[in-house]
Each structure stands twice: as structure tokens, then as C-alpha cells.
């Protein structure tokens, strides 16, 4: 094969690969445009369901996803989206997601706190804890997560905000203390954040950014 033929072959192969790459990119772009709305809608439904789970039935009459405030700095330092639950126009509770470090990795949860600083509900939204041990934090596995209902910074007293192994009020799991310990500490951190930013979270001043 002559040098010219070899160059032509290399050029053809390169052009073919480039054309294939452009075609694949174009197809992926079209698929993304076709599915992004459905993906966004699914994510919105998941968020709505998570928020509704931590509120008592009939507690709010507003669209939680549309009534938000974005705090420039949340409990973990990053901006925090806070959802406000209203009843007949009055803000009754603040809902937000917060995360702590469990045994296997991050444990994310959503919590709702009423105007008086009392927990209405907490639910785990994501974790990678050990099946059969740490995953007992899920409501579907045990009712343990309901231990936080009705709790506040004063109930129990600060010294009792921990698992029983540490002298606290909350149960730990046999063979898995790190996970419930992390959840208790994270919920307490959420209460501390609410207490420190209560007026902003309830919309009683102009802090944050409300769409």
C-alpha cells in the first residue's frame, strides 16, 4: 500500500470516528431533551412525598414546593432550601433536609419543626447503612424514627439528647450504635439550626431568597 493510500485510510477512519461521535452526542442530546421534563417531574414528586410524610394529615393547605426560602448557609455550610407549611396563610412549620455521617456514609433525612420548635416528624431519605442493622432507621423497617416526634431542644433536656448507651433517651440497635447515634446528633443539629434562624425560616423577616 502506498503512503498516499495509507494516509487516505487514516483520514477516512478518523473522519468516520468523528462522525460517529457527533451522531452519538446528538442522539444523547435529543434523548436528554425528551426526558428531562419527566425526570424533573419525578424528582418533584419524590420531594413532595418526603415532605408530606413528616407532616400530620391536614396540617398544611399550601403547595410546599412553591413556598420556600433559600438560606445562604445551612447547618452544613452550603445553601439550604427550606419549605414552609402554611394553614390559612399562616406559617405553621419549617421543613428541610439535613445529613449526618453514619457508619457506611452520609445519612440524609428530612425533618419538620413547628413554630414552637417541636419536631413534627423525621424521615430518612437516603443512606448506605448495613442491611439488617443500620437500616433500622428506615420507617419501613422499624418505627424507631418516630422516637423524634414531639421532641424539642428542651424535651429531652440537652444531656439526654443521645442514645441510651451514651446516657441519652433514644434506643440504639443491637450491633449498630453508630447509625442511630449519627441520626440523633443530626436531628439535634437541625433543632439548633431552627432555633438560631427561627425568624428567617418562618418568614418573620426579609432574610433568605423567596422565589
UniProtKB/TrEMBL annotation:
Membrane protein topology class: Single-pass membrane protein
Record bears the keyword Flavoprotein: yes
Residues annotated with FMN phosphoryl threonine modification: 177
InterPro entries tied to this protein: FMN-bd, Ion_transpt_RnfG/RsxG
EC number: 7.-.-.-
Its job: Part of a membrane-bound complex that couples electron transfer with translocation of ions across the membrane.
PANTHER family: ION-TRANSLOCATING OXIDOREDUCTASE COMPLEX SUBUNIT G
Protein family according to the UniProt entry: Belongs to the RnfG family.
Cofactor: FMN
Transmembrane region(s): 12-32
Designated gene of the protein: rsxG_2
Complex formation: The complex is composed of six subunits: RnfA, RnfB, RnfC, RnfD, RnfE and RnfG.
Protein name in UniProt: Ion-translocating oxidoreductase complex subunit G
Amino acid at each position: 500500500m502506498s503512503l498516499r493510500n495509507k494516509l487516505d485510510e487514516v483520514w477516512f477512519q478518523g473522519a468516520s470516528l468523528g462522525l460517529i461521535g457527533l451522531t452519538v452526542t446528538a442522539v444523547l442530546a435529543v434523548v436528554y431533551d425528551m426526558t428531562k421534563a419527566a425526570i424533573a417531574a419525578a424528582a418533584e414528586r419524590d420531594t413532595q412525598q418526603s415532605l408530606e410524610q413528616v407532616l400530620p394529615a391536614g396540617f398544611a393547605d399550601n403547595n410546599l414546593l412553591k413556598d420556600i426560602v433559600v438560606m445562604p448557609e445551612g447547618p452544613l455550610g452550603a445553601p439550604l432550601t427550606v419549605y414552609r407549611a402554611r394553614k390559612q396563610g399562616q406559617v405553621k412549620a419549617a421543613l428541610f433536609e439535613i445529613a449526618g455521617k453514619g457508619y457506611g456514609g452520609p445519612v440524609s433525612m428530612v425533618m419538620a419543626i413547628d413554630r414552637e420548635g417541636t419536631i413534627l416528624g423525621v424521615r430518612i431519605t437516603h443512606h448506605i447503612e448495613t442491611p439488617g442493622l443500620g437500616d433500622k432507621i428506615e420507617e419501613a423497617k422499624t418505627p424507631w424514627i418516630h422516637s423524634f416526634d414531639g421532641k424539642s431542644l428542651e424535651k429531652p433536656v440537652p444531656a439526654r439528647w443521645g442514645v441510651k448507651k451514651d446516657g441519652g433517651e433514644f434506643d440504639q440497635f443491637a450491633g449498630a450504635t453508630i447509625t442511630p447515634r449519627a441520626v440523633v446528633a443530626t436531628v439535634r443539629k437541625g433543632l439548633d439550626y431552627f432555633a438560631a434562624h427561627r425568624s428567617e425560616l418562618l418568614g418573620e423577616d426579609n432574610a433568605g431568597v423567596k422565589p
